Amino acid sequence: MSVQTATSRDEIPEEISAINLVDTRTYLEHDMDAYWRRLRADHPLYWHPPVDGKPGFWVVSRYADVMALYRDNQRLTSEKGNVLVTLLAGGDSAAGQMLAVTDGRRHKDLRNVMLKAFSPRALSKVAALVRVNARRMIADAVRRGEGDFAAEVASVIPLTTVGGLLGVPVKDHSYLLGLTKSSLSSDEADQAPEEAFLARNEILLYFSDLVAERRADPQDDVISTLTASEIDGVPLTDQDIVFNCYSLILGGDETSRLTMIDSLYTLSREPEQWKRLKEGSVTLESATEEALRWATPAMNFGRTALVDIEMAGGTIKAGDVVTLWNTSANRDESVFDDPYVLDLGRSPNKHITFGYGPHFCLGAYLARVEVKEMLDAMRTFSDGIELTGEPRRIHSNLMAGMSTLPVRFRPDEAGLATADD
Ligand code: HEM
Asked: What Gene Ontology terms for biological process does this UniProt record contain (predicted)?
Protein backbone atom coordinates (compact mmCIF):
# COMPACT_ATOMS: atom_id res chain seq x y z
CA MET A 1 0.00 0.00 0.00
CA SER A 2 1.38 3.39 -0.97
CA VAL A 3 2.39 6.08 1.45
CA GLN A 4 3.86 8.19 -1.35
CA THR A 5 2.37 11.33 -2.78
CA ALA A 6 2.74 12.42 -6.39
CA THR A 7 3.79 15.79 -5.10
CA SER A 8 5.31 16.12 -1.66
CA ARG A 9 2.62 16.20 1.01
CA ASP A 10 4.01 19.51 2.31
CA GLU A 11 2.96 21.13 -0.94
CA ILE A 12 -0.72 20.17 -0.58
CA PRO A 13 -2.56 23.32 0.44
CA GLU A 14 -4.97 23.32 3.34
CA GLU A 15 -8.04 23.88 1.11
CA ILE A 16 -7.25 20.56 -0.60
CA SER A 17 -6.14 18.47 2.35
CA ALA A 18 -9.12 19.61 4.44
CA ILE A 19 -11.58 18.03 1.99
CA ASN A 20 -12.64 14.53 2.98
CA LEU A 21 -14.01 12.80 -0.13
CA VAL A 22 -15.27 9.83 1.89
CA ASP A 23 -17.60 11.93 4.03
CA THR A 24 -20.94 12.36 2.24
CA ARG A 25 -21.47 15.79 3.83
CA THR A 26 -18.44 17.17 2.01
CA TYR A 27 -20.32 17.43 -1.28
CA LEU A 28 -23.06 19.55 0.28
CA GLU A 29 -20.90 21.78 2.40
CA HIS A 30 -17.94 22.73 0.18
CA ASP A 31 -17.34 24.48 -3.13
CA MET A 32 -16.33 21.35 -4.98
CA ASP A 33 -15.93 23.13 -8.34
CA ALA A 34 -13.05 25.16 -6.88
CA TYR A 35 -11.56 21.99 -5.39
CA TRP A 36 -11.61 20.09 -8.71
CA ARG A 37 -10.22 23.07 -10.66
CA ARG A 38 -7.33 23.20 -8.24
CA LEU A 39 -6.66 19.47 -8.42
CA ARG A 40 -6.74 19.42 -12.24
CA ALA A 41 -4.39 22.37 -12.39
CA ASP A 42 -1.87 21.50 -9.68
CA HIS A 43 -2.37 17.97 -8.30
CA PRO A 44 -3.72 15.75 -11.09
CA LEU A 45 -2.63 12.66 -9.16
CA TYR A 46 -3.46 13.38 -5.54
CA TRP A 47 -3.06 11.01 -2.61
CA HIS A 48 -6.15 11.31 -0.41
CA PRO A 49 -4.99 10.53 3.09
CA PRO A 50 -6.56 7.70 5.14
CA VAL A 51 -9.67 8.76 7.08
CA ASP A 52 -11.78 7.02 9.73
CA GLY A 53 -9.43 4.03 9.83
CA LYS A 54 -9.87 3.38 6.09
CA PRO A 55 -6.94 3.30 3.67
CA GLY A 56 -5.93 6.32 1.61
CA PHE A 57 -6.49 6.38 -2.15
CA TRP A 58 -5.44 8.15 -5.32
CA VAL A 59 -7.67 10.84 -6.81
CA VAL A 60 -7.44 11.28 -10.61
CA SER A 61 -9.14 14.41 -11.90
CA ARG A 62 -8.02 15.16 -15.49
CA TYR A 63 -10.09 13.91 -18.42
CA ALA A 64 -7.19 12.31 -20.31
CA ASP A 65 -5.93 10.46 -17.21
CA VAL A 66 -9.41 9.28 -16.24
CA MET A 67 -9.96 7.94 -19.79
CA ALA A 68 -6.57 6.20 -19.82
CA LEU A 69 -7.24 4.45 -16.52
CA TYR A 70 -10.82 3.42 -17.43
CA ARG A 71 -9.38 1.82 -20.56
CA ASP A 72 -6.63 -0.04 -18.71
CA ASN A 73 -8.01 -3.34 -17.44
CA GLN A 74 -4.59 -4.97 -17.62
CA ARG A 75 -2.83 -2.95 -14.94
CA LEU A 76 -5.98 -2.14 -12.94
CA THR A 77 -8.73 -4.42 -11.67
CA SER A 78 -12.40 -3.90 -10.80
CA GLU A 79 -12.49 -7.22 -8.91
CA LYS A 80 -11.62 -5.58 -5.60
CA GLY A 81 -14.61 -3.27 -5.98
CA ASN A 82 -15.41 -0.33 -8.26
CA VAL A 83 -16.98 2.10 -5.76
CA LEU A 84 -15.39 3.75 -2.74
CA VAL A 85 -17.35 1.84 -0.14
CA THR A 86 -16.19 -1.59 -1.36
CA LEU A 87 -12.72 -0.46 -2.47
CA LEU A 88 -11.95 0.93 0.97
CA ALA A 89 -13.43 -2.13 2.66
CA GLY A 90 -10.97 -4.25 0.65
CA GLY A 91 -13.27 -6.03 -1.79
CA ASP A 92 -16.68 -6.79 -3.26
CA SER A 93 -18.44 -10.06 -2.44
CA ALA A 94 -19.89 -10.18 -5.97
CA ALA A 95 -16.42 -10.09 -7.63
CA GLY A 96 -16.13 -12.47 -10.55
CA GLN A 97 -19.93 -12.76 -10.78
CA MET A 98 -21.38 -9.26 -11.16
CA LEU A 99 -20.42 -7.63 -14.45
CA ALA A 100 -19.10 -4.35 -13.05
CA VAL A 101 -16.74 -6.13 -10.64
CA THR A 102 -15.53 -8.88 -12.97
CA ASP A 103 -12.51 -8.69 -15.26
CA GLY A 104 -10.78 -10.57 -18.04
CA ARG A 105 -12.29 -13.43 -20.00
CA ARG A 106 -15.19 -13.94 -17.57
CA HIS A 107 -16.16 -10.25 -17.90
CA LYS A 108 -16.11 -10.47 -21.68
CA ASP A 109 -18.24 -13.63 -21.73
CA LEU A 110 -20.69 -12.31 -19.16
CA ARG A 111 -20.97 -8.97 -20.98
CA ASN A 112 -21.77 -10.84 -24.21
CA VAL A 113 -24.49 -12.80 -22.44
CA MET A 114 -25.95 -9.63 -20.95
CA LEU A 115 -25.76 -7.86 -24.31
CA LYS A 116 -28.22 -10.44 -25.67
CA ALA A 117 -30.70 -9.09 -23.17
CA PHE A 118 -29.91 -5.61 -24.46
CA SER A 119 -30.50 -6.59 -28.09
CA PRO A 120 -32.13 -4.01 -30.36
CA ARG A 121 -35.36 -6.04 -30.25
CA ALA A 122 -35.49 -6.15 -26.45
CA LEU A 123 -34.56 -2.48 -26.23
CA SER A 124 -36.95 -1.23 -28.90
CA LYS A 125 -39.84 -2.62 -26.86
CA VAL A 126 -38.56 -0.94 -23.70
CA ALA A 127 -37.75 2.34 -25.51
CA ALA A 128 -41.34 2.50 -26.81
CA LEU A 129 -42.57 1.95 -23.26
CA VAL A 130 -40.34 4.77 -21.99
CA ARG A 131 -41.84 7.18 -24.53
CA VAL A 132 -45.42 6.27 -23.64
CA ASN A 133 -44.71 6.51 -19.90
CA ALA A 134 -42.78 9.77 -20.12
CA ARG A 135 -45.48 11.46 -22.21
CA ARG A 136 -48.30 10.26 -19.97
CA MET A 137 -46.57 11.10 -16.69
CA ILE A 138 -45.31 14.49 -17.79
CA ALA A 139 -48.63 15.52 -19.39
CA ASP A 140 -50.38 14.59 -16.12
CA ALA A 141 -47.81 16.49 -14.03
CA VAL A 142 -48.18 19.61 -16.21
CA ARG A 143 -51.98 19.42 -16.01
CA ARG A 144 -51.78 19.20 -12.21
CA GLY A 145 -49.69 22.38 -12.41
CA GLU A 146 -47.56 21.87 -9.32
CA GLY A 147 -45.84 19.03 -7.56
CA ASP A 148 -42.61 17.23 -6.70
CA PHE A 149 -41.10 16.25 -10.06
CA ALA A 150 -38.73 13.84 -8.30
CA ALA A 151 -41.48 11.78 -6.68
CA GLU A 152 -44.11 12.04 -9.40
CA VAL A 153 -42.06 11.58 -12.57
CA ALA A 154 -38.31 11.08 -12.19
CA SER A 155 -38.66 8.26 -9.64
CA VAL A 156 -41.13 6.36 -11.73
CA ILE A 157 -39.69 6.39 -15.27
CA PRO A 158 -36.28 4.71 -14.65
CA LEU A 159 -37.60 2.02 -12.36
CA THR A 160 -40.48 1.26 -14.73
CA THR A 161 -37.93 1.06 -17.55
CA VAL A 162 -35.42 -1.23 -15.91
CA GLY A 163 -38.25 -3.10 -14.15
CA GLY A 164 -39.84 -3.69 -17.58
CA LEU A 165 -36.53 -4.89 -18.96
CA LEU A 166 -36.02 -7.33 -16.08
CA GLY A 167 -39.66 -8.40 -15.92
CA VAL A 168 -40.30 -7.10 -12.39
CA PRO A 169 -44.09 -7.04 -11.83
CA VAL A 170 -45.46 -3.47 -11.70
CA LYS A 171 -46.92 -4.08 -8.22
CA ASP A 172 -43.37 -4.45 -6.83
CA HIS A 173 -41.90 -1.29 -8.38
CA SER A 174 -42.47 1.04 -5.43
CA TYR A 175 -41.12 -1.54 -2.95
CA LEU A 176 -37.91 -1.82 -5.02
CA LEU A 177 -37.68 1.95 -5.42
CA GLY A 178 -37.57 2.38 -1.63
CA LEU A 179 -34.77 -0.18 -1.42
CA THR A 180 -32.65 1.21 -4.27
CA LYS A 181 -32.93 4.71 -2.84
CA SER A 182 -31.49 3.72 0.51
CA SER A 183 -28.86 1.35 -0.82
CA LEU A 184 -26.67 3.87 -2.68
CA SER A 185 -27.40 7.24 -1.14
CA SER A 186 -29.56 8.75 1.50
CA ASP A 187 -31.83 11.72 2.10
CA GLU A 188 -30.32 11.86 5.59
CA ALA A 189 -26.73 12.71 6.51
CA ASP A 190 -26.72 10.19 9.31
CA GLN A 191 -28.19 7.09 7.69
CA ALA A 192 -26.48 4.13 9.34
CA PRO A 193 -24.37 2.06 6.89
CA GLU A 194 -26.29 -1.00 8.14
CA GLU A 195 -29.47 0.40 6.60
CA ALA A 196 -27.88 0.50 3.15
CA PHE A 197 -26.51 -3.01 3.74
CA LEU A 198 -29.95 -4.33 4.71
CA ALA A 199 -31.56 -2.64 1.70
CA ARG A 200 -29.01 -4.27 -0.62
CA ASN A 201 -29.68 -7.68 0.95
CA GLU A 202 -33.40 -7.28 0.52
CA ILE A 203 -32.92 -6.52 -3.17
CA LEU A 204 -30.83 -9.70 -3.53
CA LEU A 205 -33.51 -11.77 -1.76
CA TYR A 206 -36.22 -10.27 -3.92
CA PHE A 207 -34.38 -11.27 -7.08
CA SER A 208 -33.65 -14.79 -5.78
CA ASP A 209 -37.40 -15.38 -5.64
CA LEU A 210 -37.97 -13.86 -9.08
CA VAL A 211 -35.20 -15.98 -10.66
CA ALA A 212 -36.79 -19.14 -9.21
CA GLU A 213 -40.15 -18.06 -10.68
CA ARG A 214 -38.66 -17.44 -14.13
CA ARG A 215 -36.79 -20.74 -14.17
CA ALA A 216 -40.12 -22.47 -13.59
CA ASP A 217 -42.05 -20.27 -16.02
CA PRO A 218 -39.84 -18.30 -18.51
CA GLN A 219 -41.16 -15.02 -19.95
CA ASP A 220 -39.90 -12.52 -22.55
CA ASP A 221 -37.54 -10.64 -20.21
CA VAL A 222 -33.89 -10.32 -19.17
CA ILE A 223 -34.11 -12.74 -16.24
CA SER A 224 -35.51 -15.46 -18.47
CA THR A 225 -32.78 -14.75 -21.08
CA LEU A 226 -30.13 -15.12 -18.37
CA THR A 227 -31.61 -18.35 -16.98
CA ALA A 228 -31.32 -19.82 -20.49
CA SER A 229 -27.69 -18.61 -20.98
CA GLU A 230 -24.45 -20.53 -20.74
CA ILE A 231 -20.75 -19.66 -20.70
CA ASP A 232 -18.49 -22.43 -22.07
CA GLY A 233 -21.41 -24.83 -21.84
CA VAL A 234 -22.04 -24.05 -18.15
CA PRO A 235 -25.38 -22.39 -17.31
CA LEU A 236 -25.31 -19.21 -15.19
CA THR A 237 -26.02 -19.99 -11.55
CA ASP A 238 -28.89 -18.39 -9.64
CA GLN A 239 -26.34 -16.31 -7.79
CA ASP A 240 -24.76 -15.06 -11.04
CA ILE A 241 -28.19 -13.94 -12.24
CA VAL A 242 -29.24 -12.40 -8.93
CA PHE A 243 -26.06 -10.31 -8.68
CA ASN A 244 -26.50 -9.02 -12.21
CA CYS A 245 -30.17 -8.18 -11.74
CA TYR A 246 -29.10 -6.27 -8.67
CA SER A 247 -26.50 -4.40 -10.66
CA LEU A 248 -29.01 -3.54 -13.41
CA ILE A 249 -31.57 -2.24 -10.98
CA LEU A 250 -29.05 -0.18 -9.00
CA GLY A 251 -27.11 0.94 -12.08
CA GLY A 252 -30.23 1.78 -14.03
CA ASP A 253 -32.46 3.40 -11.48
CA GLU A 254 -30.77 6.06 -9.41
CA THR A 255 -28.42 7.39 -12.11
CA SER A 256 -31.23 8.05 -14.60
CA ARG A 257 -33.52 9.45 -11.90
CA LEU A 258 -30.86 11.91 -10.74
CA THR A 259 -30.16 13.00 -14.32
CA MET A 260 -33.82 13.76 -14.99
CA ILE A 261 -34.19 15.72 -11.76
CA ASP A 262 -31.01 17.67 -12.42
CA SER A 263 -32.06 18.43 -16.00
CA LEU A 264 -35.39 19.92 -14.97
CA TYR A 265 -33.81 21.87 -12.12
CA THR A 266 -31.18 23.26 -14.48
CA LEU A 267 -33.73 24.20 -17.16
CA SER A 268 -35.79 26.07 -14.54
CA ARG A 269 -32.71 28.22 -13.88
CA GLU A 270 -31.52 28.66 -17.46
CA PRO A 271 -34.34 30.40 -19.38
CA GLU A 272 -32.21 30.95 -22.50
CA GLN A 273 -31.37 27.26 -22.77
CA TRP A 274 -35.00 26.29 -22.08
CA LYS A 275 -36.02 28.61 -24.94
CA ARG A 276 -33.56 26.89 -27.30
CA LEU A 277 -35.00 23.51 -26.36
CA LYS A 278 -38.61 24.67 -26.61
CA GLU A 279 -38.14 26.38 -29.97
CA GLY A 280 -36.23 23.44 -31.39
CA SER A 281 -33.08 25.43 -32.16
CA VAL A 282 -31.03 22.62 -30.60
CA THR A 283 -31.54 18.93 -31.32
CA LEU A 284 -32.93 16.66 -28.64
CA GLU A 285 -29.79 14.54 -29.06
CA SER A 286 -27.37 17.34 -28.25
CA ALA A 287 -29.60 18.59 -25.39
CA THR A 288 -29.58 15.04 -23.96
CA GLU A 289 -25.78 14.78 -24.12
CA GLU A 290 -25.34 18.14 -22.41
CA ALA A 291 -27.91 17.21 -19.74
CA LEU A 292 -25.87 14.06 -19.09
CA ARG A 293 -22.57 15.95 -18.93
CA TRP A 294 -24.07 18.61 -16.70
CA ALA A 295 -25.60 16.17 -14.21
CA THR A 296 -22.76 13.58 -14.07
CA PRO A 297 -24.81 11.60 -11.52
CA ALA A 298 -22.08 8.99 -10.93
CA MET A 299 -19.34 11.21 -9.51
CA ASN A 300 -16.61 8.58 -9.50
CA PHE A 301 -15.71 4.95 -9.98
CA GLY A 302 -12.56 3.22 -8.84
CA ARG A 303 -10.06 0.45 -9.43
CA THR A 304 -7.18 -1.27 -7.65
CA ALA A 305 -3.71 -1.23 -9.24
CA LEU A 306 -2.25 -4.66 -10.02
CA VAL A 307 1.25 -3.32 -10.78
CA ASP A 308 3.10 -0.04 -10.27
CA ILE A 309 1.81 2.63 -12.68
CA GLU A 310 3.69 5.82 -13.53
CA MET A 311 1.43 8.71 -14.38
CA ALA A 312 0.95 12.47 -13.99
CA GLY A 313 4.34 12.81 -12.35
CA GLY A 314 3.80 10.15 -9.69
CA THR A 315 3.68 6.40 -9.05
CA ILE A 316 0.57 4.44 -8.20
CA LYS A 317 1.85 1.38 -6.33
CA ALA A 318 0.53 -2.14 -6.88
CA GLY A 319 -2.35 -2.67 -4.42
CA ASP A 320 -3.33 1.01 -4.24
CA VAL A 321 -6.92 2.15 -4.68
CA VAL A 322 -7.38 4.64 -7.54
CA THR A 323 -10.53 6.75 -7.94
CA LEU A 324 -11.53 8.26 -11.30
CA TRP A 325 -13.61 11.43 -11.00
CA ASN A 326 -16.13 11.79 -13.82
CA THR A 327 -17.40 14.88 -12.09
CA SER A 328 -14.06 16.61 -12.63
CA ALA A 329 -13.23 15.10 -16.05
CA ASN A 330 -16.57 16.40 -17.39
CA ARG A 331 -15.53 19.95 -16.48
CA ASP A 332 -11.95 19.69 -17.75
CA GLU A 333 -11.21 23.00 -19.47
CA SER A 334 -8.62 21.36 -21.73
CA VAL A 335 -11.40 19.28 -23.34
CA PHE A 336 -14.62 21.31 -23.04
CA ASP A 337 -14.91 24.99 -24.06
CA ASP A 338 -16.44 26.92 -21.15
CA PRO A 339 -17.08 23.73 -19.20
CA TYR A 340 -19.04 25.56 -16.48
CA VAL A 341 -21.52 26.90 -19.04
CA LEU A 342 -24.59 24.85 -19.95
CA ASP A 343 -24.84 24.75 -23.75
CA LEU A 344 -27.56 22.44 -25.03
CA GLY A 345 -26.09 22.72 -28.52
CA ARG A 346 -22.58 21.73 -27.38
CA SER A 347 -20.63 19.89 -30.06
CA PRO A 348 -18.42 17.95 -29.76
CA ASN A 349 -19.48 16.68 -26.34
CA LYS A 350 -17.41 13.64 -25.47
CA HIS A 351 -18.46 13.52 -21.82
CA ILE A 352 -17.44 10.65 -19.61
CA THR A 353 -20.73 10.31 -17.74
CA PHE A 354 -21.03 6.61 -18.75
CA GLY A 355 -17.37 5.74 -18.12
CA TYR A 356 -15.15 4.40 -20.87
CA GLY A 357 -13.45 1.24 -22.09
CA PRO A 358 -14.31 -2.36 -21.23
CA HIS A 359 -16.76 -1.45 -18.45
CA PHE A 360 -18.51 1.31 -20.44
CA CYS A 361 -22.08 1.54 -19.18
CA LEU A 362 -24.25 -1.26 -20.53
CA GLY A 363 -27.38 0.85 -20.09
CA ALA A 364 -26.12 4.01 -21.84
CA TYR A 365 -28.57 3.66 -24.74
CA LEU A 366 -31.52 3.20 -22.40
CA ALA A 367 -30.46 6.08 -20.17
CA ARG A 368 -30.19 8.33 -23.23
CA VAL A 369 -33.68 7.30 -24.34
CA GLU A 370 -35.07 8.14 -20.89
CA VAL A 371 -33.51 11.60 -20.75
CA LYS A 372 -34.40 12.38 -24.37
CA GLU A 373 -38.05 11.37 -23.95
CA MET A 374 -38.29 13.38 -20.77
CA LEU A 375 -36.91 16.50 -22.47
CA ASP A 376 -39.16 15.97 -25.49
CA ALA A 377 -42.31 15.57 -23.39
CA MET A 378 -41.36 18.58 -21.28
CA ARG A 379 -40.86 20.91 -24.24
CA THR A 380 -44.08 19.65 -25.87
CA PHE A 381 -46.41 19.94 -22.86
CA SER A 382 -44.96 22.81 -20.84
CA ASP A 383 -44.33 26.45 -21.56
CA GLY A 384 -42.04 27.06 -18.60
CA ILE A 385 -40.87 25.65 -15.27
CA GLU A 386 -40.48 27.45 -11.95
CA LEU A 387 -39.11 26.15 -8.68
CA THR A 388 -41.58 26.49 -5.80
CA GLY A 389 -39.18 25.49 -3.02
CA GLU A 390 -35.66 24.36 -2.27
CA PRO A 391 -34.81 20.90 -3.63
CA ARG A 392 -33.25 18.45 -1.19
CA ARG A 393 -29.80 17.15 -2.15
CA ILE A 394 -28.77 13.53 -1.58
CA HIS A 395 -25.96 12.42 0.70
CA SER A 396 -23.51 10.15 -1.08
CA ASN A 397 -19.83 9.90 -1.99
CA LEU A 398 -20.74 8.09 -5.23
CA MET A 399 -23.83 9.81 -6.60
CA ALA A 400 -24.68 13.49 -6.93
CA GLY A 401 -28.07 15.11 -7.25
CA MET A 402 -31.41 15.87 -5.64
CA SER A 403 -34.14 13.73 -4.15
CA THR A 404 -36.95 16.31 -4.26
CA LEU A 405 -37.81 19.00 -6.81
CA PRO A 406 -40.86 21.13 -6.04
CA VAL A 407 -41.93 22.83 -9.27
CA ARG A 408 -44.77 24.64 -11.03
CA PHE A 409 -45.39 24.16 -14.76
CA ARG A 410 -46.95 26.60 -17.20
CA PRO A 411 -49.03 24.43 -19.53
CA ASP A 412 -48.66 24.48 -23.31
CA GLU A 413 -52.31 23.87 -24.23
CA ALA A 414 -51.57 23.13 -27.90
CA GLY A 415 -48.96 20.56 -26.87
CA LEU A 416 -51.22 19.01 -24.23
CA ALA A 417 -53.93 18.54 -26.85
CA THR A 418 -51.57 16.06 -28.56
CA ALA A 419 -50.80 14.15 -25.33
CA ASP A 420 -53.00 11.18 -26.04
CA ASP A 421 -51.95 10.76 -29.68
C1 HEM B 1 -21.52 0.72 -15.86
C2 HEM B 1 -22.99 5.34 -15.42
C3 HEM B 1 -27.55 4.03 -16.56
C4 HEM B 1 -26.21 -0.60 -16.19
C5 HEM B 1 -21.53 2.09 -15.71
C6 HEM B 1 -20.34 2.90 -15.55
C7 HEM B 1 -20.75 4.19 -15.42
C8 HEM B 1 -22.20 4.20 -15.51
C9 HEM B 1 -19.87 5.42 -15.22
C10 HEM B 1 -18.89 2.39 -15.51
C11 HEM B 1 -18.53 1.78 -14.16
C12 HEM B 1 -17.08 1.36 -14.07
O13 HEM B 1 -16.30 1.62 -14.99
O14 HEM B 1 -16.70 0.78 -13.03
C15 HEM B 1 -24.36 5.37 -15.68
C16 HEM B 1 -25.14 6.59 -15.76
C17 HEM B 1 -26.43 6.24 -16.10
C18 HEM B 1 -26.44 4.79 -16.21
C19 HEM B 1 -24.61 7.99 -15.49
C20 HEM B 1 -27.64 7.09 -16.30
C21 HEM B 1 -27.64 8.37 -16.59
C22 HEM B 1 -27.57 2.67 -16.60
C23 HEM B 1 -28.74 1.88 -16.95
C24 HEM B 1 -28.37 0.56 -16.80
C25 HEM B 1 -26.97 0.54 -16.42
C26 HEM B 1 -30.10 2.45 -17.38
C27 HEM B 1 -29.17 -0.71 -17.01
C28 HEM B 1 -30.38 -0.80 -17.43
C29 HEM B 1 -24.84 -0.63 -16.08
C30 HEM B 1 -24.06 -1.86 -15.98
C31 HEM B 1 -22.70 -1.49 -15.90
C32 HEM B 1 -22.69 -0.03 -15.92
C33 HEM B 1 -24.62 -3.29 -15.98
C34 HEM B 1 -21.48 -2.40 -15.79
C35 HEM B 1 -20.87 -2.63 -17.17
C36 HEM B 1 -19.61 -3.46 -17.13
O37 HEM B 1 -18.97 -3.55 -16.09
O38 HEM B 1 -19.24 -4.05 -18.18
N39 HEM B 1 -22.66 2.91 -15.70
N40 HEM B 1 -25.17 4.31 -15.95
N41 HEM B 1 -26.52 1.83 -16.31
N42 HEM B 1 -23.98 0.44 -16.04
FE43 HEM B 1 -24.56 2.38 -16.10
From this structure: cholesterol catabolic process
